[in-house]
Amino acid sequence: MIESPPILTIRRNFPRPTAAQVDAFRDVPTAFVCDAMGGQGAMASSIRAIGDGRDITCRAVGPALVADNGPAEILASLAALEISQPGDIIIAAMHGHRNVASADDLFCGMMKNKGIAGFVTDSEMRDYTAIVEVGLPVWCTGLNPNSPNGTGPGRVGFEASVGGRCVSSGDMIIADENGVVVVPFAQIDTVIEAVARVVEMEAELEAKVKGGVDSLLDLEEMIADGRAVIVD
Length: 232
Prior knowledge:
The protein is α/β, with parallel strands linked by helices and 232 residues long. It has one domain (8-206): Ribonuclease E inhibitor RraA/RraA-like (Glucose Oxidase, domain 1), CATH 3.50.30.40. It has 7 helices and 11 strands. It has helices at residues 19-24, 30-36, 75-83, 105-114, 128-134, 188-210, 219-224; strands at residues 8-10, 48-49, 60-68, 89-93, 118-121, 138-140, 154-156, 159-162, 165-168, 172-176, 179-183. A hairpin with a 2-residue loop joins strand 8 and strand 9. Helix 2 packs across helix 6 (188-210). The protein is elongated, with a radius of gyration of 20 Å. The protein starts with 7 loop residues before the first strand and ends in an 8-residue tail after the last helix.
């Protein structure tokens, strides 16, 4: 190359969901959000609440701020903290690289001081006991004491593939003990409307189950109209 590229590329002015849009997902389980999106939306199950949620109540809702670090790198995450807004969820993309910590208790403490709602990474973390003391909701792929690099290059405020999902800065993140769900920015209002219907249907079905219902299929009707066949 003729010139060395910058070690950081930062986009600060990406579209963000409104406070009302964030609040619409505040108490909604991730499973309901996935149902509202045709059964999809969750990151891979390898990204889970730290310690499987034993010692920290892991629940967070807010806009994604994507830090595309690359393998074993954290420079973009450090820069994301600098431009973050209270309520953001920092998404630290390390391209699925393992055997290195993407963050520790001190970085979690700084994120909490800044008002960050949660931290999600497709890599590992370290200093579990101290992270528990900080109390920041965290989702990661496990624990590892190895140190990352902070030399770049990195991109902040753009998009990255994390846990099998393309996440853009400004997308809605809903995360709980079951996993991390991504709602694309352009679909937020549509999903909010669909979630309301899912909540109603879940409440109706729950009432039926408590009332003694023990099946979801009308097997006799399915046999009668040919959708099911008995072969023995």
